[in-house]
């Protein structure tokens, strides 16, 4: 399999896992689970997100996408920035549940739009 197909497969798996991990940590957050404070729970998302970033940048370089020249790619990166900010706010503040559920819902909608953008981009 050409290496770029490997990068694409890995990217899609990293993208899926990032949301699965995010949702799990959200459930542990509102359930006040001790699991949230385990070392591996803090480290694994960074490893996965690094893989997501490296595979994404590899694809962007291979296909020659610039966020300033390719509209959908610029929109995707802006949505990813928003997704990261929402995640930081969700896990770094000790807020009430309504606030946490609101932030998670906004993250979910943002993630959904990232998927819509990549699935509807022009070929
Ligand atoms: C939450 C984060 C992300 C999600 C959910 C996500 C999702 C996806 C998915 C599902 C695809 C496959 C689309 C297809 O099969 O045609 C894809 C492709 C791609 N992604 Fe991501 N991605 C994320 C982050 C990133 C990042 C950080 C970058 C670059 C810095 C990036 C760059 C790309 C590129 C260049 C492609 C290839 C598009 C093409 O085939 O023309 N992605 N992404």
Automatic annotation (TrEMBL):
Top-level division of the source organism's lineage: Bacteria
Sorted alphabetically, the keyword list is: Membrane, Transmembrane, Transmembrane helix
Which sequence ranges are marked TM in the entry?
12-31, 43-63, 69-91, 98-119
Asked if the Swiss-Prot or TrEMBL record annotates the protein with the keyword Nuclease, the reply is no
Q: Which GO cellular component terms, listed alphabetically, does the Swiss-Prot or TrEMBL entry include? A: plasma membrane
Name this polypeptide is given: Protein SirB
């Amino acid at each position: 399999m050409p290496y770029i197909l490997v990068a694409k497969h890995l990217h899609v798996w990293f993208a899926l896992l990032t949301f699965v991990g995010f949702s799990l940590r959200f459930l542990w957050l509102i359930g006040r689970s001790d699991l949230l404070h385990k070392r591996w729970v803090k480290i694994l998302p960074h490893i996965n997100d690094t893989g997501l970033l490296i595979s994404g940048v590899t694809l962007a370089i291979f296909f020659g996408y610039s966020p300033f020249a390719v509209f959908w790619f610029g929109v995707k990166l802006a949505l990813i920035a928003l997704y990261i900010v929402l995640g930081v706010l969700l896990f770094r503040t000790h807020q009430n549940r309504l606030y946490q559920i609101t932030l998670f819902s906004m993250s979910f909608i943002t993630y959904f739009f990232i998927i819509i953008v990549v699935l509807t981009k022009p070929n």
